[in-house]
Model the fold of this input.
Amino acid sequence: MSYVTTATLIQMKKQGEKIAVLTSYDASFTALLENAGIEVILIGDSLGMVIQGQESTLPVAVEEMVYHTRCVARGRRNALLIADMPFMSYSLANQALGTAGRLMKDGGAHMVKLEGGATQLETVRQLTENGIPVCAHLGLLPQSVYKLGGYRVQGGDEASAMLMKEDALALEQAGAQMLILECVPASLAAKISKALVIPVIGIGAGPDCDGQVLVVYDMLGITPKKAPKFVKNFLQGNKSVQDALTAYVKEVKAGSFPDSDHSFQ
Ligand code: KIV
Done:
């Protein structure tokens, strides 16, 4: 496999080849993800919960994201690296430029991710105009968990579904080059994936997205808390971490993960 770029991912979407994505926070896991053929690695602010043991992703600092991105970059061979911009580090467009600059220059990220729809359009525009590729994130926004009142499926009624689709199209128009949809009914995620040119990666968003992402600790059953419905433990039935990661890539590529047991209707 040669270097994965945003052009590679657009091509994969055009050809109907599913994109396999997982989170990683260090060099050793990254090497295993690369062996398994993962195309995109997300240095998610989920590290606040699975590494730091925080209650939510909110306390994660830019400095911590830079540190973990640098660790992942050292283990990376071909995958595209996306780093999360932490809570309150991109509220103003100028601040977002500073955060993204650090993640790319000091961390080695190839793309940055931010959460939100209409309110983020100006920031997405500014970042992309400055040569910074952006992955947007709609549906359940973990950085807004206290506003949302918990980790719940989003876009379940007609009005919120329509708004999410409009936000997705506007983010693409503003320059976003990838979109993550989290905890969204499968039928809505399918419609959004079809409407967009950029790749749409689902987590709890059904099988018809252009690719899938999970938190690596969740899909290995390491996370001590009860896993959400959309998580499958790939270590069960596989004899090593490497085999579990390879099984995940195989199921994503075949379109057999997620099945209806791991999706919302
Ligand atoms: O932080 C993270 O790991 C994420 C995924 C849940 C998509 O944003």
